[in-house]
């Protein structure tokens, strides 16, 4: 692994992606960055250069709270 640059965390927990990385990976305002925390406490980032659809987001999150899909859908439309 090559260290291309460093960044710091700013107000509101925002970071800046170094320009060399943005240019190399063609990162734009529409890009989505997926963060993964590895067992060894390292972070892996994956860049997707598209806006995610609802279909892309299905299954990404989890909740310890028991939910009912029918009730959730009804609550959106009532």
From TrEMBL:
Pfam name, any one: MazE_antitoxin
Residue span(s) of domain SpoVT-AbrB: 7-53
Molecular function as annotated in GO: DNA binding
Superkingdom per UniProt: Archaea
Species, as recorded: Methanobrevibacter gottschalkii DSM 11977
TM regions (residue ranges): none
Protein name (Swiss-Prot/TrEMBL): AbrB family looped-hinge helix DNA binding protein
């Amino acid at each position: 692994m090559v260290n291309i640059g460093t960044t710091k965390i700013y107000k509101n927990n925002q970071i800046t992606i170094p320009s060399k990385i943005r240019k190399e990976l063609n990162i734009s305002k529409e890009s989505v960055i997926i963060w993964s925390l590895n067992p060894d406490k390292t972070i892996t980032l994956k860049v997707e250069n598209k806006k995610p659809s609802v279909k892309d987001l299905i299954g990404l999150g989890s909740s310890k709270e028991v939910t009912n899909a029918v009730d959730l859908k009804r609550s959106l439309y009532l």
